[in-house]
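Quiz preparation item.
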């Protein structure tokens, strides 16, 4: 099958864990085109080093994993979504092992590791710290055996095509900058997260919120956009990407030290370095603010731990830091918080159906409510597998809507010419603004300022012609959605922290935020 043909049965935008898992489910029912905007290896899934959680040990039970998930979600998880995740998770994992996924074992037994906020040892690792890469390898290998699946790289989706109120395809920009259209019976957005809204992020460069922005522009509802998880410990070096230094390092005994070399976490939380992510991130932001340095950092310190076990347990982290001349066993590691995971996204039911007929979403781009106000670490790869498969199963029913034969819609000419400096300037401006005013710690005044600033940029976003200007437009729109939701939620909950409303307000806000067009509601 030709890559990116004009017509297919199912269109899957995104070749990460959620998109590939959905495609495998769909292949039995018809032709599936899976599109990725860059190489298939350029996804956040590829970057996931930690692992994925599953209640597989004799001491563990699904209800304990559920309790931990609900408690991390701070009252806002959709319990049915969380149950589906954890009840179906082990089956999805076993299937993946059957398809060739490698996992760390002691002799023949799977190693189940501890992780912060998990009450039992239940995190499965692959090659020490390459969980996502190994999941992708197994899914890609399985997809290759299914002749109905075509995976097309460098196909950039610009917007959904909607006819008579039903999503029936996609507008695309090919690698050469040619405009194309594809029609399908159903479209799945599995475009990942939106970390690139922020100056500091652990996400891949692809995480520009394209799916959320495309769905919103087409008229779908988005939900829980205010809940952005900030990873406390991302490598902070000018020349280096914001590589995650996972909490397992703190689990192994690493300390956080400020510029004065004081171990500061014990004064913020009884669990010190093992406090929840958001507590650690806020404590770090405070330490950075009170420091008088021009470009302050906090240090992660493993120098008191035994060298060999650290190297053996974290080979990829060790090797990556060595590329930047940091030996994690002898040197302090400069770190800062960075945007890491979006709990919100395109609002869907538990079958992946968005609020527009013909449109589905799964993975980080979707909001099923499974993570509530804060994701339990290591639940999101599992989410991609479980809800990707569920969406795929449901989409099969859409086959009765034969792909529409569409007239070509008139569109402006595109170009993939050199990225103009103006676009990069605007992206940086938005990223700085989001970091400053819609970041780890928020206030009503700063959020209002951010919204006004973003609105003044709107006219410059109106005419996207290149991939990068499309990405800029999506970053801008997704940024507005995050800021609007954060302003409306006048309380603190999970990953959303407002200085002016530091407590929960269950009466008004034990609900999901939902935005459609200009209206925002809580339900
Ligand atoms: C550093 C890091 C470590 C992590 N570690 C863990 C962990 O240990 N355990 C865990 O459970 N979770 C972890 N996570 C989170 C987890 O990796 C992600 O939530 C998950 O992989 C998202 O998968 P996805 O399929 O939804 O999206 P992604 O894997 O991000 O895939 C998105 C796909 O969409 C495509 N795409 C996007 N926009 C377009 C467009 N406009 N046109 C065409 N294609 C498009 C991209 O090319 C890509 O193929 C980690 C995240 C990070 C950043």
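Solution:
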């Amino acid at each position: 099958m030709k890559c990116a043909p004009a017509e297919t049965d199912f269109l899957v935008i995104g070749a990460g864990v959620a998109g590939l898992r959905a495609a495998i489910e769909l292949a039995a029912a018809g032709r599936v085109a899976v599109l990725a905007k860059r190489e298939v290896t350029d996804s956040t899934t590829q970057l996931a080093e930690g692992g994925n959680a599953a209640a597989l040990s004799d001491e563990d039970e699904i209800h304990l994993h559920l309790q931990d998930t609900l408690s991390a979600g701070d009252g806002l998880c959709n319990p049915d979504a969380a149950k589906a995740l954890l009840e179906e998770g082990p089956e999805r994992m076993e299937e993946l092992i059957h398809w060739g996924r490698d996992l760390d074992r002691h002799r023949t037994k799977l190693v189940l590791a501890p992780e912060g906020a998990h009450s039992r040892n239940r995190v499965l690792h692959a090659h020490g710290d390459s969980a996502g890469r190994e999941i992708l390898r197994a899914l890609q290998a399985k997809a290759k055996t299914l002749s109905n699946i075509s995976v097309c790289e460098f196909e950039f989706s610009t917007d959904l095509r909607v006819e008579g109120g039903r999503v029936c395809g996609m507008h695309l920009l090919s690698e050469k900058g040619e405009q194309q259209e594809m029609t399908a019976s159903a479209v799945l957005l599995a475009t990942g997260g939106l970390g690139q809204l922020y100056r500091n992020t652990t996400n891949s460069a692809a995480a520009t919120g394209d799916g959320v922005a495309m769905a919103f522009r087409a008229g779908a509802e988005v939900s829980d956009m205010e809940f952005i998880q900030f990873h406390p410990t991302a490598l902070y070096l000018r020349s280096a990407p914001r590589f995650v230094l996972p909490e397992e390092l703190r689990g192994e005994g690493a300390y956080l030290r400020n510029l004065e070399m004081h171990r500061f976490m014990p004064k913020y939380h009884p669990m010190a370095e093992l406090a929840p992510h958001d507590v650690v991130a806020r404590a770090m932001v405070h330490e950075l603010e009170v420091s008088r340095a021009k470009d302050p950092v906090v240090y992660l310190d493993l120098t008191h731990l035994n060298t060999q076990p650290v190297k053996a347990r974290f080979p990829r982290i060790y090797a990556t830091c060595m590329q930047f001349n940091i030996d994690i066993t002898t040197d302090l590691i400069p770190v800062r918080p960075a945007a890491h995971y979006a709990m919100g996204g395109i609002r869907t039911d538990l079958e992946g159906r968005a609020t527009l007929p013909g449109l589905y979403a799964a993975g980080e781009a979707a909001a099923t409510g499974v993570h509530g106000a804060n994701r339990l670490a290591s639940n999101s790869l599992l989410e991609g597998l479980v809800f990707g498969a569920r969406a795929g199963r449901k989409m099969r029913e859409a086959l009765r809507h034969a792909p529409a034969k569409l007239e070509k819609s008139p569109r402006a000419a595109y170009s993939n010419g050199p990225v103009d400096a103006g676009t990069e300037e605007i992206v940086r401006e938005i990223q700085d603004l989001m970091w400053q005013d819609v970041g780890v710690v928020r206030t009503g005044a700063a959020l209002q300022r951010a919204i006004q600033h973003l609105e003044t940029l709107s006219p410059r976003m109106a005419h996207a012609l290149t991939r990068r200007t499309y990405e800029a437009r999506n970053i801008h729109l997704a940024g507005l959605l995050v800021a609007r939701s954060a302003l409306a939620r006048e309380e603190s909950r999970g990953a959303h922290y407002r200085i002016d409303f530091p407590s929960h307000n269950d009466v008004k806000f034990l609900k999901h935020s939902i935005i459609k067009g200009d209206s925002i509601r809580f339900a």
